[in-house]
Specification:
- With 255 residues, the chain is α/β, with parallel strands linked by helices.
- 39% of the residues lie in helices and 13% in strands.
- Strand 1 and strand 2 form a beta hairpin.
- Helix 1 packs parallel to helix 2.
- The radius of gyration is 20 Å and the shape is globular.
Length: 255
């Protein structure tokens, strides 16, 4: 974990430090040295009045950077999927057992490659300055529906035990303090109860001439490593096979 000097020697950065103060320092440097383009990576649901601390600090950061450097381009990506992501890989992992809200959180998952293409375009096109972009995928899913896609691709069934928020949030907070690597926290539990909202005034991939990819078309490439050896080389299902599969009940290999 990152740390900084404090009265007690060193302490961990919190969300206010990283999302607000960190963004403020970068914006000040951009303004001071007359940098031509500044693209600020925010988050979907960035809102200074959100119940989630993460979303609140992201919302405040947007106001701060725009007040310092009005030409800032703000980017709000949806939950991202790709290599080593924290969406598909988390759902495919055996450690992702406890959840809340029965996985009913809804969002438009977006491909990391499409985000990269959008950022490259913004860096070269001055017409994107001072604009806000909501970058999201073409289809809305619940977390449970994404989990079904993952299970189908890895040919296993991952169990998810629902725990009420009043119990899971303090458990997650305590767990987060006991281990040094990132797993979960109370705010992550809170975010499970907040669906993605799209700002109707923001621009999107369409304004950049980019057609975002659909997550169901990429699960094979990102999740093949989670399969058992018996099914590792099984190719991705065709559209016809997917339609036929819905007609039958299958016994899932749970190795």
């Amino acid at each position: 974990m990152d740390a900084k000097p404090g009265s007690d020697g060193y302490r961990n950065f919190d969300l206010e430090d990283v999302n607000v103060e960190g963004a403020e320092r970068i914006a000040e440097a951009v303004a001071k040295y007359d940098v031509d383009r500044f693209v600020h990576m925010s988050s979907y649901n960035a809102d200074k009045s959100s119940k989630s601390e993460f979303f609140r600090t992201k919302g405040r950061a947007e106001e701060v950077v725009r007040s310092i450097f009005p030409e800032t381009t703000i980017v709000r990506p949806a939950p991202v999927f790709g290599f080593e992501d924290k969406l598909l890989n988390r759902l495919a992992s055996v450690s992702n057992l406890l959840t809340s809200n029965h996985m009913r959180e809804r969002f438009w998952p977006v491909h990391a490659i499409d985000i990269g293409s959008a950022l490259a375009y913004m860096a070269e096109d001055d017409t994107t300055a001072a604009e806000t972009y909501e970058l999201y995928g073409p289809k809305n899913y619940s977390m449970a529906q994404i989990a079904e896609l993952v299970d189908r691709e890895i040919i296993k069934h991952r169990r998810h035990l629902n725990v009420p928020k009043r119990f899971l949030a303090p458990m997650a907070q305590a767990y987060n303090k006991l281990i040094w690597w990132s797993q979960t926290c109370a705010d992550a539990v809170e975010r499970e109860f907040i669906d993605q909202k799209i700002d109707p005034n923001a621009k999107t991939f369409k304004d950049l001439g980019i057609e975002p990819g659909e997550v169901a078309n990429y699960t094979y490439y990102y999740l093949q490593g989670y399969r058992s050896s018996s099914f590792y080389d099984l190719p991705p299902a065709s559209e016809r096979e997917r339609r036929e599969e819905k007609k039958f009940m299958h016994v899932i290999d749970d190795q």
